[in-house]
Amino acid sequence: MNRLWFRITAALVGITLLSLITVTIVAQVNTQAQFEQLAGRQREIAQSVLLDTLHEYYVLNGGWNGAEHVLQSALPNFPQAQPPPGARNTQRRQRDTVRFVLADDHDNVVAYAGAAPRANRFDAAERRAALPIEIDGRLVGHLLVDSPELTMLGEAQQLVLNQLRRYAIISALIVGVASVLFGVLSGRALAAPLTDLAGVAQRFSSRRWDVRAHVRGAQEVADVAQAFNEMADSLERAEINRRNLTADIAHELRTPLTVIQGNLRAMLDGVYPLERGEIATIYDETRLLSRLVEDLRLLALAEARQLQLQMRDESAQALMHAAAAQYQVAADAAGVRLQVIEPDVDVIVRADADRAGQVLRNLLSNALRYTPAGGTITMHMQGFGEALCFAVQDTGAGISADALPHIFDRFYRGDASRVRSGNSTGLGLAIVQSLVQAMGGSIGAESTLGVGSTLWFELKKTTADG
């Protein structure tokens, strides 16, 4: 199963169970070690007490005659090891687990308790393992405490340890079941927002542009949902723009094609004479179609960032004067004053000279189109930090506040006072915006109705302000 909630649940349960097993094993080993240390300490204390008792017995009796009852009386009180399985009674357990053997200073066995000794004398190994008994610095005997497993726990200690093991196992089972339930709930809770997001994405891919994801869940999941919604908004706007662009292109192409088709049909039917004037009208319409196609191609290249630019250091004054010189004659013919205001010191900008000139010419053409006779068009520039601002200001009718944010849109039709003339494709300002952005700059517009408009764009400077 490759479901996300299942994988999250499995991971949580696996980590919990692994932690439980590790903690249980570590606790068990540590507890048993502590019990064994305690048992060993108890035996050391018991041995010390027995040695003191034997020491006193020897001092009082002057020898080891009758010392066997001392060992027998000490045997039941000595910490016993856990009996092996199948032990029948206490005496058998004592014989199987603990044995006291007392030898004199010549290693001869004189008394014992528990199982009988292996021999009447200590061998070298038993001699080394035995505890010495000294009186006034003189060796008087040895005590051998012999047990098959001196490190084994006593019955009571083993009982406590087994009970702790049972409690640990029960606790582990309870925590394990709880971790499974918690893992399932947590896994589903974490996966639910992603499942919803997947469903929304599937519906969106089916061209349901209005669906949006619910922003919920963990911060990371909520960020994904928010990013998806922003992407969906952008794609929806792009789809609307695409549809509008298709409709606008169809509209723009239909008008000149209708004129061409109508005029040619009229000539063929003999309604219009086949004269140079009629042919010139058709030719003008084909030129408009050609400009429209070229503008669309240029706009598509600029928006796709595939436009080839030759970025160099260019003189800002030279760019302005070149553009103004091309429109001076047209401005004089329209009765419009065209002036250039420039700083005292030239400024160098980073730009493609041809495209920057095209931007300035488009702005001048736009200003000239909407400036009445007797008006003024002013070109000027001003530095702002690392950028140089080019501005084209006219004294036309101005642009309304509602229309101002849309003047750079393709084929935008706004104020009636600014309806484009028949030789305009309606893409000039959209192309200007794309070219400026392709050169790394920004563009904007300001306008006041009845006063005029200012369209500006910024390019990066390569020299300091003059």
Number of separate structural domains: 3
Number of helices: 10
Q: Helix content range of the residues, please?
A: 40-55%
Provide mean pLDDT, rounded.
80
Structural class: alpha+beta
Please provide the ordered H/E string of secondary-structure elements: HHHEEHEEHHHEHEEHEEHEE
Assigned CATH superfamily of the largest domain: Histidine kinase-like ATPase, C-terminal domain
Tell me the β content.
15-25%
Estimated radius of gyration:
52 Å
According to CATH, what is the topology of the largest domain? Heat Shock Protein 90
Strand order of the largest sheet: 6-8-9-11-10
Q: What is the CATH C-level name of the largest domain?
A: Alpha Beta
Low-confidence stretches: 84-96, 416-421
Largest sheet, in brief, is: 5 strands, mixed
| CATH architectural designation of the largest domain | 2-Layer Sandwich
Distance between the termini: 70 Å
Oligomer status: single chain
E-strand count: 11
